[in-house]
Predict the 3D structure of the following.
Amino acid sequence: MTSTVHPVDERLPTGQLAALGLQHVLVMYAGAVAVPLIIGRALKLSPEDVAFLISADLFCCGLVTLIQSLGATQWFGIKLPVMMGVTFAAVAPMVAMANANPGGAGAQLIFGSIIGAGIISILIAPAVSRMLRFFPPVVTGTIIAVIGISLMRIGINWIFGNPFGPTAPSIVTPEHKQWLDAAAAAASAPGSTLPAVPKDLALLPKMPNPKYADLTGVGIAALVLVSILLIARYAKGFLANISVLLGIVIGGIVATAMGLMNFDKVGKAAWFDVVTPFHFGMPVFEPVLILTMTLVMIVVMIESTGMFLALGEMTDSKVDQKALSRGLRTDGLGTLIGGIFNTFPYTSFSQNVGLVAVTGVKSRFVCVAGGLILIALGLLPKMAALVESLPTVVLGGAGLVMFGMVAATGIRILGGVDFKNNRFNALIVAISIGIGMIPLIAPNFKQWMPHGLHPLIESGILLASLSAVLLNLFFNGASGDSRDAIEAAKQAEAH
């Protein structure tokens, strides 16, 4: 008597596993390395430290993927073909933390909040798996749309230059600075009758900065964008799925040919190195920041719930309450591991769920192979240094696509919402998006509010999430069902 092996548990030949695993890695690679690049540069870390963040990210992506797809004890791992990667949902609050506390101190605060949120997420995972009714498509679609809109700012700044610093739109006129320096020196000279220069006196930048919106850089970003569009339009199958990655490669080659990218840091990087925990020192646990990141994780786990249910349907696997809890606990465990190893909150990558549908290969061991490949990449500092060396204009061209697709995913989910017969849904979306835009449009709105609230309210994603959930409860009650979440998850291909 022979027993039939379920397609999810099928062990394919080693060569086939490696090829399919690499396919999964390539599909998620661009999205996986984007977050450490964003946060590392927001923290104003050295290129070496940014490269370390990339290595740590890839290593943890692989480790958490193994836990999720293989399973670990009765508590962790949904045992489905799931690739784990860092979530874009946490980027905005982390950038806010980084801007307020640059350098190693900011890194300690960020990783402390991630560790705290990871522990809480593990504990509340079973409860979150029962909260789907609070997150119907009108809520999840709005939240994901706001995430995408919030991230677009980063991609645009990568193309043209940052709002502050050497690539700011305007700089102080050199003659004006020279005059002020001379006046300050004269005022501080012994016996001077001139009044002292007031503390924090600064000149207003008025001179156009030649480094801002440089046409060469804009041209490279445009080339990356056009390359992605052409590949997505004319390529088929796997090549179309990795259009973003191929666009970045093309941009990198052109930037190198034009002398805008060098490989000095790649040459100095080691071939092999171990990712060490607490690289930036012991984490700092700030309660408000932990709460902020926990709210982000709740949204992430709700999305993961819909994703797991959709994946269960695709693979003909029963995903019951216990399985959901194991999967969501792994989101929390991955986030905890991420904080310890200097990286970020984790979730299932929907691009890879889409790849399962495209290829028809349901074996979870394909993702196990992908996880092993990611771990290997995380132990190769030269690979991380190569990614870090990419000019921001190259990443900006790809960022328009990556971040824009997140917003488009939210819009696509909202496309299934009943606006015709339920006029309240339009109010929920309109008000929540408006509230989510406040920190983007008026970043100083919080200046008269208690300082302890600032980390909580400076993220438009969190404000939009709270608004959408509360308004939906007010207008529609908590009557959503898991079918809606499954259908929404099936459409979430870019987040």
Notes: Residues 13-168+206-491 form one domain.
